[in-house]
Design brief:
single chain; 202 residues; three-stranded parallel β-sheet
Length: 202
């Protein structure tokens, strides 16, 4: 993926980690404005951007990296919403999956809260915009997670994992905004792609 971004630079803005795996010289030659860190990201006003969270090979967990997902999401929205034709943005909270694979309840919970904070900021923006569809879902469940009580000492749910792998448990799809009515019911998750294409009239 990192190499393909220099050969076929289709995306307008990309935000995330993994700087050591990318050829920043090639990215700049492909027309991207490259920045590292949240302060540099917020000053990045290039028409095509790649914003790295840090210079590390391995990403930091949520408590150590701070509200990077929320800040990155809002930076992307602020840049992309300048396009009068509209925009498509995908935001991923990837480490929820990592925590669940490891059956690490603290990691899973921290990453879920981090994603919820980012989603909340996006929904607040969409509520004011009144013309943006927001879809929130997952590609799969992982870990066979069950909530079976509440720990009053830690103020966290009691969590039990039955697997270290993906499961066939159905995942919810939440949608709000224009076209949200198309996302009700039960269906294969690949249908979301076709529903979005239909709404975009592709």
């Amino acid at each position: 993926i990192a190499a393909d971004m220099t050969r076929n630079p289709a995306a307008t803005i990309l935000i995330g980690g993994g700087l050591p795996y990318f050829d920043t010289i090639a990215l700049k030659q492909a027309g991207y404005s490259v920045s590292v860190g949240s302060q540099a990201m917020e000053k990045n006003t290039g028409n095509r951007q790649i914003c790295f969270s840090d210079t590390l090979k391995q990403p930091l967990p949520a408590p150590l990296r701070g509200p990077w997902l929320q800040r990155g999401s809002m930076h992307a929205i602020n840049q992309l919403s300048k396009n009068k034709k509209g925009f498509f943005l995908m935001i991923e909270g990837s480490q929820i999956d990592w925590g669940a694979h490891n059956n690490d309840s603290a990691h899973t919970l921290a990453e879920a809260i981090d994603f919820d904070d980012a989603a909340g900021a996006v929904l607040e923006w969409a509520k004011k915009d009144k013309n943006t569809l927001v879809i929130i879902t997952a590609d799969h469940e992982c870990g066979g997670l069950t909530l079976h009580g509440f720990n009053p000492k830690t103020q966290t749910p009691a969590m039990h994992f039955s697997s270290g792998h993906h499961t066939a448990e159905p995942v919810p799809v939440y949608a709000i905004g224009p076209g949200a009515e198309h996302f009700g019911g039960v269906y294969q998750n690949t249908e979301i792609y076709f529903k979005i294409r239909q709404l975009l009239k592709w």
